[in-house]
Backbone:
């Protein structure tokens, strides 16, 4: 009985305490939009550091207040330094419950890898995760928070843990309606969400390239969707919606702390995700929001 109590105590501590990685890990690849070589080195960090991106002497916290763009990805920046397409890396960090880390970046954006967060997850787990002594910082909202834009909306309501339902509805024969629901924890994220890849319609490609986007895109790092087929077999029947959920998990990391809420997102993207986080930031206690500024 004492042994069982000890195990339960350890589990409670691991869930309630902050976490960082055990040692530095290097991840390299091609940038999805830039097509350039990109290298990130994720370093351990002390408790209450948060996730900080660093390059050329500039350090920028992963916070909604530092977002400078949401066109086909989430970008943060300050003083001329920009870190682009951070959402897959941040989904891996957030999904694994990692609170603190320094992300040293070389190159124009994060590596696209296979278009999902799974390679980031695998690299992080290969070096291990360290439980720290400080308690996790958690925002528990006491009233609904929402963002609405036409027929798209995202709603967060009070809950004791983070649970997400993502509703995708496309008038497209290969997409249709998909609506996965998951409690976001390390096991669910790793098994059911992390491997979901980014996607685009074949008809969008020329426009994206004209906007200097997707210059590094290929069927190796994205699912291309034609009217009658995909560029590769899907990893899950609802992989497209799961990827949108993955993006949302990454964007919620912009809160700078853990979130306890039930979220329903209908046809949303990075812009609405970030707007929700900005509204959630207003729910923080004064001391917390000042610290996160």
Residues:
């Amino acid at each position: 009985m004492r042994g069982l109590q000890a195990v339960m105590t350890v589990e409670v501590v691991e869930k309630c305490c902050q976490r960082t990685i055990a040692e530095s890990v290097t991840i390299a690849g091609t940038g999805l939009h830039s097509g350039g070589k990109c290298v990130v080195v994720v370093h351990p960090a002390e408790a209450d550091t948060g996730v900080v991106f660093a390059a050329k002497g500039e350090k920028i916290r992963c916070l909604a207040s530092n977002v400078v763009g949401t066109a086909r990805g989430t970008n943060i920046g300050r003083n001329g330094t920009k870190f682009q397409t951070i959402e897959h890396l941040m989904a891996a960090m957030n999904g694994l419950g990692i609170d603190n880390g320094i992300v040293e970046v070389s190159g124009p954006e994060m590596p696209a890898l296979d278009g999902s967060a799974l390679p980031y997850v695998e690299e992080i787990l290969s070096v291990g995760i360290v439980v720290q002594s400080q308690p996790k910082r958690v925002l528990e909202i006491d009233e609904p928070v929402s963002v609405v834009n036409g027929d798209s909306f995202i709603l967060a309501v009070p809950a004791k843990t983070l649970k997400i339902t993502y509703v995708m509805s496309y008038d497209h024969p290969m997409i249709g309606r998909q609506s996965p629901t998951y409690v976001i924890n390390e096991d669910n994220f790793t098994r059911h969400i992390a491997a979901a890849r980014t996607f685009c319609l074949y008809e969008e490609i020329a426009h994206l390239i004209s906007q200097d986007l997707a210059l590094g895109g290929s069927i190796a790092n994205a699912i291309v969707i034609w009217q009658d087929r995909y560029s590769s077999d899907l990893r899950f029947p609802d992989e497209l919606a799961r990827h949108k959920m993955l993006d949302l998990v990454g964007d919620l990391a912009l809160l700078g702390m853990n979130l306890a809420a039930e979220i329903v997102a209908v046809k949303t993207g990075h812009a609405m995700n970030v707007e929700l986080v900005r509204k959630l930031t207003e729910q923080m206690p004064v001391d917390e929001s000042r610290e996160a500024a």
About this structure: The longest helix spans residues 2-16. Residues 225 and 273 are 24 Å apart (CA to CA). The first strand starts at residue 17 and ends at 21. The helical segments are 2-16, 87-95, 118-127, 186-193, 205-210, 239-252, 270-281, 286-291.
